[in-house]
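Hi R.,

Here's the chain you asked about this morning:
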Amino acid sequence: MKTTPRLALAAFAVSTAITIAAAPTFAQSEDAPYTVVETGRSYARLQEAVDAIGDARGTIRFGSARFADCAVQTQGDVAYVAAVPGQAVLDGVACEGKGALVLRGRAARIEGLTFANIRVSDKNGSGVRLEHGSLSVSQSWFRDSEQGILTGDDPQGVVKIDKSTFTRLGTCEGSGCAHSIYIGNYGALTVTNSRFEQGTGGHYVKTRAAKVAILNCSFDDSHGRATNYMIDLSDGATGRIADNWFVQGRDKENYSAFIAVAAEHQNHTSGGLVIENNDARFAPGIERRSAFVADWSGDAVKLGQNALSAGLTRYEKR
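And the predicted structure, written out as tokens:
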């Protein structure tokens, strides 16, 4: 039987949860769980490993454990890689009152890590807080935190997310809302083969990037609580949203649209934005009206064929 992308994503999330349950816990371990691959040296604290790489390029390999730890990267190009995907968890600790990884170097790559239970006083606790530079994330799980990934602005930078899962994220309890992911004014955002589920407030994907590609993802809001849009292109954007699966749940703070274009500002053109080959519906038992695409931009957004359930308006100009 051929495995569909959505089944593959679900299987990844389940297998990740199973492997994490078996992982030991390191707060400050004598086993030195972080290894800089290029030198072979190991470190007891993540910050020590990051500092050892400095302004160079290097890879930190994580052992299989739950880590009550965090780090700030201020320079260099650092890869954070789990030795066994799903078995390295940064759990419950935020640096600078921001996130488990605070990144403002040249670039960072994250592979196979889990970020869990990150909360801070301003309700913006993130697995990853990206302040500068480009970021690539793959095979990672962000769960049970106020926010999964939060970035500042870097119009020259790019963010790429692939084969990752975002579970029970978001809140509007602070001065503003936190979201599953919130990408600031970056040059480009690409999200592929990823799953968003069980949101606890805010939007699933909120972005101010000038260009977007959101492809082959699933947005399962059937067990969400007080959530808003599935995708919010806050400042407008060009690019492509295609081959995604959307289910809107019952408990919504705002159910008026699935995808919002330029709802806050028109800082980027949305002319030529393509939205096609998506499947959108309401969870079983829900009967309401909503717009699949709500557009404030006034630009020539291109809607191709999309499979929409009863009650969904294809396009609504606002």
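The helical segments are 5-21, 46-53.

Let me know if you need anything else.
M.
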